[in-house]
Specification:
This is Transcription initiation factor TFIID subunit 13. GO terms for molecular function: protein heterodimerization activity. InterPro entries: Histone-fold (IPR009072), TFIID_TAF13 (IPR003195). Keywords: Nucleus, Transcription, Transcription regulation. It comes from Coemansia asiatica. The protein has 104 residues and is mainly α. The chain has one domain: Orthogonal Bundle (Histone, subunit A), CATH 1.10.20. The protein contains five helices and no strands. The chain is extended.
Length: 104
């Protein structure tokens, strides 16, 4: 019973990093505005778990222990073509932005 209380307390103490963005996404996909806070919290927990899992997998396949690179994330996402394409698109956009900044 005490373990369950500790988990509940820890969940409430966590800072909500993506609450505002998730609420907007939920509204964009047809939820009410504002969506229920419980729904946002559940989605945020799922999102944080997913990000954590991807990072752990990337760290496991990393050639250099202690350093995770972009190629490690690409390798982890290789079976999901949509996510892999999005990663490559973001990398290309980042290069464009860096080159534009270097001009000024």
């Amino acid at each position: 019973m005490d373990n369950q209380i500790e988990v509940t307390i820890k969940q409430h103490q966590r800072s909500r990093l993506f609450s505002r963005e998730l609420a907007m996404l939920m509204y964009g996909f047809g939820d009410t505005m504002p969506p229920l806070p419980e729904s946002v919290d559940v989605l945020e927990d799922i999102l944080i778990d997913y990000i954590n899992d991807v990072c752990v997998q990337a760290a496991k396949v990393s050639a250099k222990k202690g350093k995770v690179g972009v190629d490690d994330f690409k390798f982890v996402l290789r079976k999901d073509p949509k996510k892999l394409a999005r990663v490559e698109e973001l990398i290309a956009r980042n290069k464009e932005i860096e080159s534009a900044r270097s001009l000024f």
